[in-house]
């Protein structure tokens, strides 16, 4: 992961909870990355609205550019 991606990832983690909806990553993998998981956008938004700050929700389609990857076996 390049330093720019690492910076964007860290900034997103500091500013709030990141919930990922992806068909390529499962909950266990996202837990390793300290990211939230939801099976679909509706449930991700429902979880975000529970925080009672709806004007602070950001949806990033194709946000794969800021998500790190884990290396298996390390």
UniProtKB/TrEMBL annotation:
Annotated ranges, domain Lactate racemase C-terminal: 8-67
Name used for this protein in its record: Lactate racemase C-terminal domain-containing protein
Record-linked InterPro entries: LarA-like_C, LarA_C
